[in-house]
Amino acid sequence: MSVHDREIAARRHRVRRTAPVERLTVARQTDVPFAPSLGSTSLGRAGGSGGAGTWARRYLTRVVALDFAVGVVCAVVATLLRFGEGPSDSYRLLSLCIPFAWVLALAMTNAYERRFLGVSGEEYRAVGRAAVGLLAVLAISAFLANVLLARLYILILLPMLLVGGLAVRKYMRGWLLARRAEGDLMQRTIVIGRADAVASLLRSIVSEPAQGLKPVAVCASGLDADWDATTALEGVPVMGTPRDALAAADLYDAEVVAVASHPDLAGKSLRRLAWALEERGIELIVSPGLLDVAGPRLSIRPSTNLSLLHIERPAAARRSQILKQVMDRSIAGVLLLMMSPLLIGIAVAIKVTDPGPVFFRQKRVGVKGQLFPIYKFRTMVVDAEKRLADLAKKSDGNGVLFKMQDDPRVTRVGKILRRYSLDELPQLINVLFGDMSLVGPRPPLPREVEQYEPDALRRLHVRPGMTGLWQVSGRSDLSWEESLRLDLRYVDNWSPMGDLHILIRTFSAVVRGSGAY
């Protein structure tokens, strides 16, 4: 435990020794909830080794240093490839300026914005904007100075800077996630709101350590009247009601205050809280209570007296659907041609090792509840469906889906095919015919759909896919609730670019073979 953590533990111990009603009044500054003060009196806020922003400084120091190194390498490589060892003095000077200009361009496009670090795709988009911006500056500067820049120099330099900038962020994000998985570089977080909403938000925060939030205290309303110093929500100590949030933030030297959806924490109260936290240098994040609605669908609609959160419809525009179908069928056709030798080899292996048909054909439920025949390589014995009833009680599935890790019906070749999802390759035919998509929810059986609750029926609003969020997040290891949540998240937030991202992640999931049985 660091010196800073021991100091916080000592403060918490001193406060908890007081009576429950009095334990936070020692740090409360005013009787007006969330009222800002003239100057911060927060405990240990200024300059402490564990103060707000420490992790961001460590992260940014490495990112800026790597960006500068990328600028140096790219400038040297572009100079050598274009001019060899004899560039003119003007290009020597330009190459010396490139690393500084690259870091400045990244800073101007918010690539170093703290709120995006490690958790947002905005980091990557900023790199693209920086490359375009640097190109514009070089072009305008050359025009004003009446100088002709070597085109090959620019064509080598800018793509290298772009790739290098993306690689730096990919590497640093992996470094950050590895540290956070060990509990390091986390932001101390106070969660406030109604008890039930706070508990739900705490579960979400704890399940995603990559967000970098470490709940250290809760300020919740709706608790029993006899709560005391031992009360906790999801294992996090309760330090008062929402009006005690500032006192708790001071006590724990918090870096973030997270507000769960709460009718009393809106309007003036939320604005006062934001002002008070601003004085202390503490971040404020607000959970709007919208489940699995991705950022691209959210935008702010300003009005005279307040800002409205506008939620766009899922990507159901006709052009997006057409683009998805064109992409699906084109890729499916190319993959069928490229993999035809592999498909023939698998078919021969199945036919030689086990009597029976090569393909397994089964009715599945598609978009809008329409039935279609799905095609797979046969991985089980011929009478597998008849033996299902005898194995139902031994299911390793999740109540709705039947799964069994050591299913005796699976053939020797079938085990290999299932391990690497090769048995699903014939579904490219379904994609080519338009019954399925490359990316989408898992195609369910009719008997599974009969058990669906109303929410689960929303899975049928889009075409089922060969892969999806369920495929890259654990496959058969997921519970039914987790599988359903991922499928509904996809239905509500799908986009053509999102499909490409899932396809790339699928390759890694298939190679690992985790959850495949």
Provide an overview of this structure.
Residues 15-32 and 36-52 have low confidence and may be disordered. The two termini are 43 Å apart. It contains 16 helices and 12 strands. The strands form 5 sheets. A 4-stranded parallel sheet has the order 2-1-5-6, sandwiched between helices. Strands 3-4 form a two-stranded antiparallel sheet. The protein has a two-stranded antiparallel ribbon with strand order 7-8. It is globular. The chain has helices at 3-16, 54-83, 89-108, 122-144, 151-181, 195-207, 245-252, 267-280, 318-338, 340-353, 388-391, 412-419, 427-433, 446-449, 480-493, 496-512; strands at 187-194, 213-221, 232-233, 236-237, 256-259, 283-286, 298-302, 307-311, 359-365, 371-377, 437-439, 465-467. By secondary structure, it is of the alpha/beta class. Helix content is 47%, strand content 11%. A hairpin with a 2-residue loop joins strand 3 (232-233) and strand 4.
Helix-strand topology string: HHHHHEHEEEHEHEEEHHEEHHHEHEHH
Q: Write down the overall mean pLDDT.
A: 79
Look at the helices and sheets and give the structural class.
Answer: alpha/beta
**Which parts are unreliable, with pLDDT below 50 for 5 consecutive residues or more?**
15-32, 36-52
Roughly how many Å apart are the termini? 43 Å
Q: How much of the polypeptide forms β-strand, as a percent range? A: 5-15%
What gyration radius follows from the Cα positions, in whole Å?
A: 28 Å
How many separate helices? 16
Order of neighbouring strands in the sheet with most strands: 2-1-5-6
Helix content: 40-55%
By DSSP, the count of extended strands is 12
Shape: globular
Biggest sheet, open or closed, and with what strands and sense? 4 strands, parallel
